Amino acid sequence: MLDKIKDLLEEVKGLTAETAEEAEQLRIKYLSKKGIIPSLFNEFKSVPNDQKKAVGQAINELKNTAQESINNLKEQFEQSNLTSGASDLTLPGSQMPIGSRHPLSIVRKQIVDIFDRIGFTVAEGPEIEDDWHVFEALNFPPEHPARDMQDTFFINQDPDILLRTHTSSVQIRTMENQQPPIRAIFPGRVFRNEAISARAHCIFHQVEGLYIDEDVSFADLRQTLLYFAKEMFGKETRIRLRPSYFPFTEPSAEMDISCTLCGGEGCNICKYTGWVEILGCGMVDPAVLSNCNIDPEKYTGFAFGMGIERIAMLKYQINDIRLFFENDVRFLEQFKAES
Ligand code: DAH
């Protein structure tokens, strides 16, 4: 009997089936009540006592092996049923939602591209800065209000470590590391301790520009910014420079563009003046050049800085700066078409 069981064991190990039906037939053949294996249990009764242990173990092993291989066959068919059901080729494809660029990324890229065309490279600097790069080297007097806790987020005092309030700090880092000619722009995130409203946020983005070489003049500044304004807002755009004050430029100016909405006629956006302010600029103060070991007798340069949110708000007529930071998909998906 042991030999017979051994043969059967080999047999069930090599079972194969082409269909679920065939697998079921095998189950009936070997394992059903009247199948081969249960009938062995009947024969077992007549096995002599001294062989009972060995035969019993062999039958059990045979039964387990048969069950296992038939279950495996069946499982295989169940799985292929599932996959064939899932790949109904007539089903419409499922849509993959495509993300869109954030409007601030779109506008930053446009600004970078415009200045790239006239030879400005891009550099970045750290958001956590020291007093030297944000204030001291830029000629901010010690009592300047920007150095007050009310305007600046300090991380540490004495030594002062803070979140940069403007990207002008990257001007300093660039001039410290490189001798002229320097022609670069510095996009980045800045932080100010301000109450959040429709027009102001404590986090926003700027692009700073810097051009230092021999004989750089205010006319170069004006022409560069006129080029930028026309590229950004359209060929018909006009600019005007108004005298202003920044500690790090002398002379300093603020630049307005003719209103993008009414073209200068007067409307809500330009508060009926025909002009909207978009950036600050000026000739780099000789003291700032000296602070960075650049010879002010030999070199001159201009700088400018603008808020990316402000440019984007004008370009897309967005009236609340908070929209940029809320990540509301209904707002963001409107910019899908842009590259
Ligand atoms: N840093 C100034 C600000 O945050 C913007 C600015 C003005 C930058 C004039 C400049 C500049 O480079 O020349 O308000």
TrEMBL record:
Cofactor binding note from Swiss-Prot or TrEMBL: Binds 2 magnesium ions per tetramer.
Record's subcellular location: Cytoplasm
CC cofactor: Mg(2+)
Any one annotated GO CC term: cytoplasm
Enzyme Commission code: 6.1.1.20
Catalytic activity: tRNA(Phe) + L-phenylalanine + ATP = L-phenylalanyl-tRNA(Phe) + AMP + diphosphate + H(+)
InterPro entries listed in its UniProt record: aa-tRNA-synth_II, aa-tRNA-synth_II/BPL/LPL, Phe-tRNA-synth_IIc_asu, Phe-tRNA_ligase_II_N, Phe_tRNA_ligase_alpha1_bac, Phenylalanyl-tRNA_Synthase, tRNA-bd_arm
Stretches assigned to the Aminoacyl-transfer RNA synthetases class-II family profile domain: 107-326
Main EC class the enzyme belongs to: ligase
Binding site for Mg(2+): E250
Record's keyword terms, sorted: Aminoacyl-tRNA synthetase, ATP-binding, Cytoplasm, Ligase, Magnesium, Metal-binding, Nucleotide-binding, Protein biosynthesis
Chief location bin: cytoplasm
One GO molecular-function entry: phenylalanine-tRNA ligase activity
Pfam families: Phe_tRNA-synt_N (PF02912), tRNA-synt_2d (PF01409)
PROSITE patterns: AA_TRNA_LIGASE_II
GO biological process, one term: phenylalanyl-tRNA aminoacylation
Family per record: Belongs to the class-II aminoacyl-tRNA synthetase family. Phe-tRNA synthetase alpha subunit type 1 subfamily.
Subunit relationships: Tetramer of two alpha and two beta subunits.
Protein name: Phenylalanine--tRNA ligase alpha subunit
Gene symbol of the encoding locus: pheS
